[in-house]
Amino acid sequence: MKIGFISLGCAKALVDTEIMMGKLRQEGHTIVPSLEEADLVVINTCAFLKEAREEGFSTIEEVVEKGKPVVVAGCMVNWLGKKLRRKFPSLISLVGTEDIERITEAIKGKIPHSESYYLPTSRTPRLLSTPPTWAYMKISEGCSRRCSFCIIPKIRGPYRSREIDDLVQEAKILEERGVAEINLISQDSTYFGRERGENLKQLLEALLRSTRKVRFRLLYLYPSSVVDEILPLFSHPRLLSYFDIPFQHSHPEVLRSMGRPGSGEDYLRLIEKIRQRVEDATIRTSLIVGFPTEGREEFRHLVAWVKRAEIDRLGVFKYSREKGSSAWPLGDPVSEKEKEKRMGEVLEVQREISLRKHRKMVGRVMEVLVEGRVQDGIYFTRSSHFAPEVDGGIYVLGELKGPWARVKITHAHPYDLEGEAL
């Protein structure tokens, strides 16, 4: 059977999609890039925010209206399975996040339902969908934090770490396949191994010790868990000096009502510590505007904090009131119009910061990972300063062979750089 895929949501969901594609290919099916030539379409969904659910519903409706048999998978199945069945009675089946390896049953009309939580291994079939030079590697499933705005623990269950030896084996497999950069992903990478008396430092040391060339980027670090013990590891040339730390806010009262530790002042001290101890560190964060306890004073505090922090990469989300979250009783007093205005103001401040930082890079020679040709003589690349998909990159004029190449930066933009091949 020819099967097409649509993957919505985060990188962790993309890995789930790759596992389903790998399983189906292993069973003799053909994965096709065009939905028109597909005999059946699998849509992997996200349920984290209202906008993500709306995208999921509209995508399913669009494909169903084309007359294609559809299987829906992912977080929306866990969270809204009954609603999906009522709204789209023609669906072949629903596949929750714990059942993705049973996708071969699902395309035959069976609805799998596991009683236990799922955790992939290095032996799990997987068909990579990213460029050949890089890949994601999921180090855990679920989350045991209790952020008041988030429903992920209810959707994906508690935090479960993969075995260090198994992750080492997967890293070796990816390296043998020619992957040059592995992006380690999790709901909270700093929580790794805690339930087994292990820790992130042990994992990073094992990965670096057991591989030869591949480089590692660590994504999603919980602010209060970026411990001193891991900072020296970033002097290793194959651990990229990139810190993805979602601070979410700066005002202590807003953070408290979010169920987040610390304060904006604590976060500034952490940022300064990283910059002092890790050479050429890049710091990325995400913030939420419009949380119910964020009044005008709290928002002004956040804008002032962004100016002081001078974060390298910053994303902003509008607060989404989620039924089932502990913040639900707080209501949603900030209007959508006001949330949009606040988001725009933060992004405008960050735009100026980013442009100023990028201008300082003009004239530098950097080693970049080649992702592919944009057009004749122009390539899209990334240095250690850019994470895949969420950040920009470096557009390079000239011919590059990769996977790694040296380029000279020639022009700066707020979110991207331009360079020339050396």
**Total strand count, please?**
18
**Biggest sheet, in brief?**
5 strands, parallel
> Helical amount among residues, as a percent range?
25-40%
CATH fold-level assignment of the largest domain: pyruvate-formate lyase- activating enzyme
User: Which descriptor suits the 3D outline?
Assistant: globular
Number of domains: 3
Please identify, by name, the CATH architecture of the largest domain: Alpha-Beta Horseshoe
In round numbers, the mean pLDDT is: 95
Order of helices and strands: EHEEHEHEHEEHEHEHEEHHEHEHEEEEE
CATH C-level of the largest domain: Alpha Beta
Key descriptive features of the protein:
single chain, 422 residues, alpha/beta, Rossmann fold, pyruvate-formate lyase- activating enzyme, OB fold (Dihydrolipoamide Acetyltransferase, E2P), 3 domains, five-stranded parallel β-sheet, five-stranded mixed β-barrel, 32% helix
